[in-house]
Amino acid sequence: MIGLEPLYVLVGAMFAAFALAQALDGSWRSAVFWGDFALIMAGASWLPDLATGALVILLGALALFGLKPSPAPAPDASARTASAERLRDWLFAPALAIPAVTLAGTFLLPLARLNGAPLVDPKQATLVSLALGAIVGLAFAMGLLRAPVSTAMKEGRRLVDSIGWAAVLPQALAALGGIFAAAGVGKVVAALATQYIPMTEPLVVVSVYTCGMALFTIVMGNAFAAFPVMTAGVGLPLIVGKFGGDPVIMSAVGMLSGFCGTLMTPMAANFNIVPAAILELSDRNAVIKVQAPTGGLLLIANTALMALFVFHR
Amino acid sequence: MLVLSGVAVVVAGFALRFNPLAVVVVAAMVTGLSAGFDPLAVVGMLGHAFAENRFIAVAWLVLPAIGLVERGGVRERARALILRLRGATTGRVLIAYLLIRQIAATLGLTALGGHVQMVRPVIAPMAEAAADGVAPLDRQTRELIRANAAAVDNIGVFFGEDVFVAIGSILLIKGFLEQNGISVAPTQLAVWAAPTAVFAFVIHAARLLLLDRRLARRGRA
Fold first, then answer.
1. Which residues on B lie below 8 Å from A2 (Cβ)?
2. Which residue among A50, A137, A216, A244 is least enclosed by CB atoms within 10 Å?
3. Helix (H) or strand (E) holding A118
4. Distance CA A23, CA A35 (A)
């Protein structure tokens, strides 16, 4: 049964190739950084946790001192323009093949059987499909450009260099979230929020709940982490219990209030910090600055929506 | 209270613009230590939690394919398509993408989009082309347009996906309410995600039209 393990080995192999390219170019910091990450990806299942933790700390230290990648030679602009005129809209096909294969795989892979046993772990069908989509997209692009694997790896390395340490940040933040949970940070924040605010007016309670969802999400970087804490601390006992509100409306709009917070926090790195790196922006908070007004206005809209409808069954 | 010191490290570290990856590693150590775990145990917890979240990195497998189509000139092609289109503005290009992304997400097609697969090779070059066809872009304006392209990808998926019944957040809500003795149908939750989806589109589309006006003023100045 294909689960996550082969995917991790594949990702590890790709980053090992990037590390090797950096080593050959004499950029040892980048080489060690990506080699370290490759080792974690491929090996963390059998490495002791302590060793993995040490490797994560090494990633942080290298990022602090700067990766200094040696610049990968970019294909020159005239060659790209000529190629664009020749290949025209076919160029979009590999990029579109990735989501197409991912979607098809998500529905079809769970049905596939090998000697009666499921071929793919049904819980991981989406990720296996994504990897399959990436491979199909790559094969398509290699055929289209008549490029060997080595060229593909060179281009992948050019992208990963422009993203840099930010490529590892979402995973590190998710790990931090795990440690926050183990240390009980969520409970302390929720207690602080509910301790100092008078909870006698339904409108105040609704505002505390929606804004609390957003604030908590800003701190934790993830509305999924905020939802159980805020709903158990404020939503269920007060909005539903004390004031007789509708749990369906409360939960649906509450979660979306958390998403407003996601738009405004660097802690949601894969949505806000990584794209700034992917698009080579000089201000790493540029995406958050663009999103914040929409997040704020939408939070007000959500609060009004909940205040108007949650108490009318 | 002491366990909040990790949160303080994050806030201070991000505000003082230290390297975020280093800040997060330090915050994890500080949180674990202040919760009373011994140092080696905290390093182990960090390693374990990082390993548990390796699934996040699977998305990077698309890098070589996207790098190759960039080499093949996909960004130049995206530009050319927009330059041929009369009446295309940055705001209109991004509103169209917002609509497509949001509708796709309501149908559960969240994979259609993404910053590496779609924004960098296709959407950002289109949004830039729509503006620099009028007047050449300075670096700041170009970056503003790119940041807007990234924001549209996020807003579209966040406020579309909850209208689809089988998405993670709906299932999380359902599971959590069930643990607390309240049984709800995913469709009820999805229905109540729809008004916010409409608000999100209206608010952000209006802001994109304002961006257009700002870019147009720059063109005339």
1. none
2. A244
3. strand A117-118
4. 10
Quote the tokens at residue B60: 């990077």
Instruction: Say how far apart CA B149 and CA B129 lie, in whole Å.
Output: 12
* Residue range A261-278, pLDDT digits in tens: 999 999 999 999 999 999
> How far apart are the CA of A246 and the nearest CA of chain B, in angstroms?
11
**Cβ–Cβ < 8 Å for A236, A187:** no
Whole-number percent of chain A with pLDDT over 90: 70
Give the whole-angstrom CA distance, residue B36 versus residue B179.
30
Residue of B nearest to A294 (CA): B204
Rounded to two decimals, the pTM is 0.92
What pLDDT does residue A76 have?
81
Point out the residue among B29, B63, B168 whose CB comes nearest to the CB of A159. Answer: B63
How many Cβ atoms are within 10 Å of A86's Cβ, its own excluded?
11
Chain B residues inside the 8 Å CB shell of A48? 44, 47
**DSSP codes joined into one string, A141-188:** HHHHHT--HHHHHHHHHHHHHHHGGGGTHHHHHHHHHHHHHHHTHHHH
Token digits for A243?
């004031």
Question: In this model, does residue A166 exceed pLDDT 80?
Answer: yes
- Separate counts of helices (H) and strands (E) for chain B: 11, 0
- The pair of three-digit structure tokens given for residue A267, joined into one six-digit string: 């802690």
Contact between chains at A53 and B22 (C-beta distance less than 8 A):
no
Measure CB to CB from residue A91 to each of B73, B124, B180 and give the nearest one: B73
* Residue B128 CA, distance from chain mean position: 19
β-partners of residue A225 are none
* Chain B closest-CA separation from residue A25 CA (Å): 19
**Which among B22, B111, B143 has the least Cβ separation from residue A99?**
B111
- Chain B residues closer than 8 Å to A293 by CB: 207
Residues A286, A270: Cα–Cα separation, whole Å: 14
From chain B, the residues in CB contact with A286 under 8 A are 143-144, 146-147
What DSSP string describes B35-96? TT--HHHHHHHHHHHHHHTGGGGGGGGGHHHHHHHHHTTHHHHHHHHHHHSTT--HHHHHHH
Between A159, A227, A228, which is nearest B66 by CB? A159
User: Can you tell me the ipTM of this complex?
Assistant: 0.92
**How near does any CA of chain B get to the CA of A114, in Å?**
24
Among the partner residues A95, A168, A291, nearest to B155 by beta-carbon distance: A291
Concatenated DSSP letters of B108-155 = T-TTS--IIIIIIIIIHHHHHHHHHTTSPPPHHHHHHHHHHHHHHHHH
pLDDT band at A9 (very low <50, low <70, confident <90, very high): very high
Q: Who contacts A290 (Cβ-Cβ below 8 Å, separation ≥6)?
A: B144, B147, B148, B150, B151
Q: Do A59 and B21 touch (CB under 8 A)?
A: yes
Task: Tell me the C-alpha distance between A14 and A7, whole Å.
Answer: 11
- The Cα–Cα gap between B190 and B166 comes to 9
Residues of chain A neighbouring B118 (CB-CB closer than 8 A): 95
